Amino acid sequence: MYFDTIIAGFGGQGVLFMGNLMAYAAMEAGRQVTFMPVYGVEMRGGTANCTVVISDRQVGSPIVHEPQAAVVMNNPSAEKFGPRVKKNGLLLVNSSLVEEQYVKARTKRILRVPSLQLAQEIGNPRLANMILLGALVELSGVVGVADMVSVLPSALDPRYHKMIPANQAALERGASFAQDNRGAV
Amino acid sequence: MAKRVMVKGNEAVAMGAIAAGCRFYFGYPITPQNEIPEYMSAELPKLGGTFIQAESEVASINMVLGAAATGARVMTSSSSPGISLKQEGMSYLCGSEIPAVIVNMSRSGPGLGGIHPSQGDYFQATRGGGHGDYRTLVLAPSTAQENYDLTMLAFDLADKYRNPVMVLGDALLGQIKEPVELKPYRKKPPAKPWALTGCAGRPSQLLKSLYLADGDLTVHNWNLFKKYQKMRQEARHELYRADDAEVILVAFGSVARILRTSVDILRDKGKKVGLLRPVTVYPFPDEAVRAAAQAAGRLMVLELNTGQMVEDVRLAVEGKAPVDFYGCPPGTIPTPEDLAREVEKMWRKGGGR
Fold this sequence. Notes:
The complex is a heterodimer of chains A (185) and B (353).
Chain A: E1 2-10, H1 15-28, E2 32-37, E3 47-55, E4 69-72, H2 75-81, E5 90-94, E6 110-113, H3 115-121, H4 128-140, H5 145-155, H6 164-180
Parallel strand pairs in A: 1-4, 4-5, 5-6
Antiparallel strand pairs in A: 1-3, 2-3
Helix pairs in contact in A: 1-5, 3-4, 4-6, 5-6
Chain B: E1 4-8, H1 9-19, E2 24-27, H2 35-43, E3 50-53, H3 57-68, E4 74-78, H4 80-85, H5 87-96, E5 100-108, E6 114-117, H6 122-127, E7 137-139, H7 144-161, E8 164-170, H8 171-175, E9 177-181, H9 216-231, E10 237-240, E11 247-250, H10 253-268, E12 273-278, E13 280-282, H11 286-296, E14 299-303, H12 309-317, E15 323-327, H13 336-349
Parallel strand pairs in B: 2-3, 2-4, 4-5, 5-8, 7-8, 11-12, 11-14, 14-15
Antiparallel strand pairs in B: 1-9, 5-6, 7-13, 10-12
Helix pairs in contact in B: 1-2, 1-7, 3-5, 10-13, 11-12
């Protein structure tokens, strides 16, 4: 078993937390995993992104050029990472923010997720990242939404523990959206 | 099983140091190793230890010397340009035979360079970047787990040989987040009768690197030399799928972990290739490299620089087998596929240089 993904967006969209949560869940599920953030100068202003690799074997490279899956949260990341997704890979587009002209890819498996609208449905527009993460884990199948929920207490700073139910709702809403649209990808 | 946590490579270094009893940290910030001082600044005061952000790298390495002279376990960390500034202090640590741990999460140079991962500090680390005829033990982790394990080992080796020990990582190994098993540290640090602890009830003693009396410095240097000879027994390496290999790749640190995947890719294509990873880069695992060259008949060295460790490999092999080299200067990190392709290219060319 081997899976890799790049999650990208603006700094502040919760991109690194998405990757972190997925990595925590994979560790708790007994997998080998690496999480690699971009750091330093790239984090200021431009795009923030991280790479998560999950495997049964020791992970060699924590950096991936052509990922099996990518989540793109804004225009620059759609432009940069969309075309890099493997030919039969999965591209999740934050269609609330990414304009269609920036969606370019070799893969046909593209799911546009109206994350803001879905997050508003469950009452917190700030959880758009968890909507997309729920969709990603649902479609990739490497870790379950339940695995993600169970590690929320250790991955989230105690200050935000009151947000756990809302995060759970957002993950589940994203997953159900992906389920409903599975046919498209 | 010990507790498994998901931590950054830099944090794993700091956790290993604290587990091994390090209670004094002196440093000056620089990317990409800032999580080490950050962690130490939060945790050391809770343990009754001391964290000081010094006014410079030069100040911090001299604080290391002073604190370590009292027998405490002491660490500093930095990244390439900062490590250059610490070289004078490292030479003094060697000359005065004071143990300490120095971490270099190296970035790219020369000069200020950039914050990308690089293995361009191999020469500086393994040859001793300061003045004088000295050697420093250098451990080269390739995972966050090894950042933890080898930092603990670094303290033991420093005390054992009364010598500074360097942990040589890079930006990739500092920034990566991986599960780390927090193995407890069970050893008892050795007694340090040489330490400066106040001379009440005993004769006073001195730690120094200045020897002006006729012949003293010669004796001192021969004694150091004998110690460096003894340090050679600490050479460590790891082999991966090397048993029936026709080509053995040699790489350390971050490149070695990427190459593990390249080996799997090439094995899947039927290529008989293996990997030898020096875990200590000083002392260099000469004998293991020589044995690998004899068994496989051909070595290829891959590094994140334009050719440094390859010299040690060629010295070890003594011309008895071809040694090819592929180097990546700082910039893009090669993928396992990139490196597998380069190995195949060298393979097709045949023969080594």
